[in-house]
Automatic annotation (TrEMBL), chain A:
Gene3D superfamilies: Tetratricopeptide repeat domain. Pfam families: TPR_11, TPR_16. GO terms for cellular component: peroxisome. Keywords: Cytoplasm, Peroxisome, Repeat, TPR repeat. It comes from Sorghum bicolor (Sorghum). This is Peroxin-5. PANTHER family: GH08708P, PEROXISOMAL TARGETING SIGNAL 1 RECEPTOR PEX5.
UniProtKB/TrEMBL annotation, chain B:
It comes from Sorghum bicolor (Sorghum). Pfam families: SCP2. The lineage of its organism: Eukaryota, Viridiplantae, Streptophyta, Embryophyta, Tracheophyta. This is SCP2 domain-containing protein. Coiled coil: none annotated. InterPro entries: SCP2_sterol-bd_dom, SCP2_sterol-bd_dom_sf. Residues 18-112 form the SCP2 domain.
């Protein structure tokens, strides 16, 4: 029934495609309109050559939802997918893990038959048979529950024979974990809906749901963190929260082995970790091959680490908890963290992400992308957040390390480890190995840049003319609104270079260079010679202190200029030499001294080479030609600030703000100038203004926190960490 | 700091100038310690560039410290930037193995984001 809904329900939800009133579907359609990846996947031989046993004539809308695509294919070709399915996603394993005690574990073959039977028997109804061994019944029910997520149809209560033989602890387990799963499955739905779904499920299974609520029973700490992560808009305080979290985690796990044990209990020693891995390999060979290579490489790496560790013959080491921990991690946990760390560096597809989460995702099925996505918009719905309260993007890959360092503090190796960290005693090969591994994480997190992260629940999706709306909002200075409208535009028209460019400009003015860079890169893809885009990329990379990149784009600016392009020698400019580029631009400036743009680029170039006096002179020249350009005033101010002329800088910023009062970047720069002069109280007011206008301005939040601590306003740090704008604005009015 | 392609070098140049200002002098008074930073482009210990942030004299110089610094840090370019801009918590970075520290732990603990000036954005 649920699967039937998957087919028909989708159609009902999207009567006329992208202009649907259902925002989720509209979003998905909009995503897939531009997602050539998703389309090419369908065309890959692996999926096409499989004979279809389905007589459904409406595959299109289903395959438009990446998560649903899998479900559907399972039904289409029960034989081909059955085995995958059994060994498949963690979601399925989740079901399997509810096997009541006493029911013997069936071999894969037997399970295979089970499912085959289910899909063959049920024919067109797709109703899992609700008789037979309790295990199968349970699997059926839970699977229906799961599929109701991607299908977007409420889970229908299923009649279940009374005696399932579930023990109290099984019930407890189902109750707890279905709540968690429901959050992922229905992460786009309101809390009441999730609870209603869970209640329906529990009722079906005759489980007493007295302990109703977001999370139950023995996870009060997690619940608290859940709520925290729900209420806070974004990154919570690394410092305090981390400590607090560790303490609480410790409380719960006063025995350091608990965590690992419970993990094992839940998933079996070779639990879903290895299944997940297996699934990943299958995926890699299947339709998603190319996209998955990055992920595979990462797994390979973690396996290598485990092997290296295993090759150490020291029995003490072999028995150490660290080793056990790492090998466990390398099988499952680490891969997940890996995904997370590798945010979007390739469109990795992870099994369970596919199962139920991809409906948000633009061009990547990547779990990590998803995570980051959620992270930026409304806190984290992901299970990782249940473990962690560190929301800082930079800190994502630290979570498990924290857990593990805290868990094992009483153990011998931990001392060894910190000893190694401290002094030169890192001679032990494994320490080096471990650190090498860690640094490879960091590098990969560095490459996560450049992937544009869309906001969720964008009200402008479906707007008839989001581009015009975005331009209008931008002109009015409503930057955060303009971002939403422009995102809707580029979702609709992914090749709209101007849409991407304006989106990038808006992010830059909103003090978010990473998003600005990501948007500008997309703009450049659509229009590789646009001078404004090249300049914007040069500026943003300069702000991120990425000299090489900045220089490359600015050099391309000159190359592509209709008038000055001839100045550039024909050789390739893959890694241009700074002084050469400056010289060419000076020639250009001599050619046409009235061209403000040349002076602007020169100013940026001198910033790169830290010749601030020349940079200031260039910007001033440009300002004589373009006195109304607020971003130019800000550039002048920033250059003055970076050459320690903070008082002058503030005057320039003030000019920029007079011309554009909602210029978040200038407000944040004001704060920086005051802070660098040691005027922390003043800086706080400007930072607060900046974050009030753009609550996603992470840099400004970080600086605000530093200024609060410098100004001895530790009392307000909690408000800062909770991103409590009301309290901050009340305390620090401008 | 010239001739270095590290992001950190740009920040340290800003630091160098910052130490000449009133706020910078305040800082030397408050901290009064000498830090040596071994900054690697990608991997700790590989192709490190060495800088000294002398918060006794109020100087930033390139090359190893003549004498014994109060604390020596080894980290990668990105990690140093993360710490100096408040993105990364130094303690967590240390636990994570992203920082190696030699010298006085008390001195190391005063190495916090707030001693660094923040770069303004164009």
């Amino acid at each position: 029934m649920a699967l039937r809904h998957l087919v028909t329900g989708q159609n009902n939800c999207t009567p006329d495609g992208a202009s649907s009133s259902n925002p989720l579907n509209a979003l998905a359609n909009a995503f897939l309109g531009q997602s050539s990846k998703a389309q090419s996947i369908k065309e890959l031989p692996g999926s096409v050559s499989v004979p279809s046993t389905s007589d459904f004539s409406t595959p299109a809308p289903i395959s438009n939802i990446p998560g649903a695509e899998n479900e559907f294919k399972q039904d289409q070709r029960p034989l081909a997918r059955g085995a995958d399915f059994i060994r498949g996603g963690p979601a399925n394993d989740w079901i399997e893990s509810f096997r009541p005690p006493g029911v013997p574990q069936l071999g894969v073959e037997a399970q295979f038959r089970d499912f085959e039977q289910i899909y063959n028997n049920t024919g067109t109804t797709f109703q899992p048979p609700l008789d037979g061994p309790p295990q199968r019944v349970l699997s059926g029910v839970l699977h229906s529950f799961l599929t109701s997520g991607p299908a977007g149809v409420p889970f229908q209560p299923l009649p279940v024979p009374a005696a399932l033989g579930l023990s109290e602890s099984d019930k407890q387990c189902i109750r707890d974990r279905s709540c968690i799963m429901a959050r992922h499955i229905f992460s786009d739905q309101p809390e009441e809906y999730i609870q209603a779904q869970v209640n329906t499920l529990l009722h079906s299974l005759d489980i007493d749901n007295r302990m109703r609520g977001p999370m139950h029973g023995h996870y009060p700490e997690l619940q608290e963190y859940w709520n925290q992560s729900q209420s806070s808009m974004g990154p919570a305080p690394m410092h305090n929260a981390a400590d607090k979290w560790i303490t609480e985690f410790d409380k719960q796990n006063n025995n350091p082995e608990n965590w690992a044990n419970s993990f094992e209990q839940q998933y079996g020693p070779n639990g879903w970790a290895s299944e997940f891995e297996q699934h990943q390999s299958q995926m890699a060979m299947g339709p998603m091959g190319g996209a998955n290579m990055g992920n595979l490489a990462a797994m390979e790496q973690s396996r290598m680490l485990a092997q290296t560790l295993a090759s150490n013959n020291d029995p003490k080491f072999q028995n150490s908890k660290f080793f056990q921990f790492v090998s466990k991690m390398s099988r499952g946990e680490l891969i997940i963290e890996d995904n997370q760390v590798k945010e979007g560096s390739a469109s990795q597809s992870s099994g369970w992400a596919d199962e139920f989460q991809t409906q948000y995702n633009a061009n990547a099925n990547s779990w990590a992308d998803q995570f980051e996505h959620e992270e930026l918009s409304h806190g984290a719905d992901k299970w990782v957040s249940e473990f962690s309260s560190q929301h800082n993007q930079g800190a994502l890959n630290e979570n498990w390390v924290d857990e593990f360092s805290k868990l094992n503090v009483t153990d011998e190796w931990a001392e060894e480890f910190s000893g190694g960290g401290f002094g030169e005693s890192s001679a032990d090969p494994w320490v080096d190995e471990f650190q090498e591994h860690m640094s490879s994480f960091k590098q990969s997190s560095g490459t996560s840049r450049g992937v544009y992260v869309f906001s969720e629940n964008n009200p402008y999706v479906g707007h008839p003319n989001p581009m015009q709306e975005g331009q209008e909002l931008f002109r009015k200075g409503l930057l955060s609104e303009a971002v939403l409208a422009l995102e809707a535009e580029v979702l609709k028209n992914p090749d709209n270079a101007e849409g991407w460019r304006l989106l990038g400009v808006t992010h830059a003015e909103n003090d978010d260079d990473q998003q600005a860079i990501a948007a500008m890169m997309r703009a450049l893809e659509a229009n590789p010679t646009n001078l404004e885009i090249l300049l914007a990329l040069g500026v943003s990379h300069t702000n991120e202190l990425e000299q090489g990149e900045a220089l490359r784009y600015l050099s391309r600016w000159l190359q592509n200029h209709p008038k000055y392009g001839g100045l550039v020698p024909p050789q390739s400019t893959d890694s241009p030499y700074g002084p050469d580029v400056v010289r060419l631009f000076n020639e250009a400036a001599q050619m046409s001294p009235e061209d403000a743009d040349v002076h602007i680029v020169l100013g940026v170039l001198y910033n790169l080479s830290r010749e601030y006096d020349k940079a200031i002179a260039s910007f001033k020249t440009a300002l004589q030609l373009k006195p109304q350009d607020y971003s130019l005033w800000n550039k002048l101010g920033a250059t003055q600030a970076n050459s320690i002329q903070s008082a002058d800088a503030i005057l320039a910023y003030q000019q920029a703000l007079d011309l554009k009062p909602n210029y978040v970047r200038a407000w944040a720069n004001m704060g920086i100038s005051y802070a660098n002069q040691g005027l922390y109280e003043d800086s706080i007011r400007y930072y607060v203004r900046a974050v009030a206008m753009n609550p996603k301005a992470d840099n400004a939040w970080q600086y605000l926190r530093i200024s609060l601590s410098n100004a001895s306003r530790a009392d307000m740090i909690a408000a800062c960490d909770a991103r409590n704008l009301d309290a901050l604005q009340k305390e620090f009015p401008l | 700091m010239d001739g270095s392609s590290l992001k950190s070098a740009q920040l340290l140049e800003l630091m160098r100038q910052h130490l000449a200002t009133d706020a910078g002098k305040e800082l030397t008074k408050k901290v009064g310690l000498v830090y040596q930073l071994n900054i690697a482009p990608k991997k700790i210990g590989v192709d490190e560039e060495i800088f000294v942030v002398d918060l006794k004299k109020g100087e930033v110089t390139k090359g190893p410290y003549q004498g014994k610094p109060d604390a020596t840090f080894s980290f990668t370019d990105n990690d140093f930037i993360g710490i100096a801009t408040g993105k990364t918590n130094p303690q967590i970075a240390f636990i994570r193995g992203a920082i190696k520290i030699k010298g006085s732990i008390n001195a190391a603990q005063k190495f916090t984001p707030d001693i660094f000036p923040k770069p303004a954005k164009l």
